[in-house]
Recover the amino acids of this structure.
């Protein structure tokens, strides 16, 4: 299959900075090519386009209509087919499972933390599928919205094995808030 752009060209074209940790693991995340990847929320699609460029089908969800319109117009501009990048407006706070269980080969959840989504995402993953998750970075007082140390590990390790699990303290140590980056594989 001919890729419209190589990774560096696509990054340049989109003028977007992709998560470096995501880039380090993108070969694993994109390895389940028979099922689509869910990017939730996708924002302007900086990770979705890289995955599509690697031959994956990506379902992009976000609440922001403008962001989804931008994904759609970039899809056309960069020559991806309609079924390679599918956009869907969804409010993740009101989200009840609108996708069938086991329907995604991987799920990417970057810079948007809503704890109850993690278990839902694992339900949506096919066995042996991958969950890649990053909390927002530690900025200003946002540590109050970050998870408490260990809480995410406990949630994910019930059903998945970690390939990456990194926790960093954010804010005053007595509050035990952390930023988290993880890549996990759903058990069979
Ligand atoms: C910081 S951006 C991260 C986007 C993308 N994951 C990335 O790394 O570029 C957060 C995104 O969450 C979306 N968002 C905020 N609240 C949401 C909600 N309730 N449901 C779905 N998307 C939401 C915003 O529209 C925004 O695109």
């Amino acid at each position: 299959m001919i890729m419209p752009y190589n990774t560096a060209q696509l990054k340049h074209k989109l003028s977007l900075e992709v998560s470096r940790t995501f880039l380090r693991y993108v070969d694993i995340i994109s390895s389940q090519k028979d099922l689509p990847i869910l990017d939730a929320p996708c924002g302007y699609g900086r990770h979705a386009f890289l995955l599509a460029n690697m031959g994956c089908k990506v379902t992009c969800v976000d609440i922001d209509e403008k962001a989804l319109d931008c994904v759609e117009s970039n899809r056309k501009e960069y020559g991806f087919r309609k079924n390679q990048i599918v956009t869907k407006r969804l409010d993740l706070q009101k989200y009840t499972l609108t996708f069938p269980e086991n329907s995604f080969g991987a799920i990417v959840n970057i810079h948007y933390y809503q704890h109850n989504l993690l278990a839902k995402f694992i339900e949506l993953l096919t066995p042996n599928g991958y969950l890649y998750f990053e909390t927002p970075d530690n900025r200003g007082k946002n540590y109050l919205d970050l998870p408490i140390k260990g809480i995410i590990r406990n949630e994910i390790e019930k059903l998945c094995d970690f390939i990456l699990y990194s926790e960093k303290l954010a804010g005053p140590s007595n509050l035990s808030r952390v930023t988290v980056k993880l890549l996990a594989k759903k058990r069979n």
In short: The first strand starts at residue 37 and ends at 39. The mean pLDDT is 93. The CA atoms of residues 103 and 122 lie 10 Å apart. Helices lie at 7-14, 20-29, 46-53, 65-77, 115-124, 151-157.
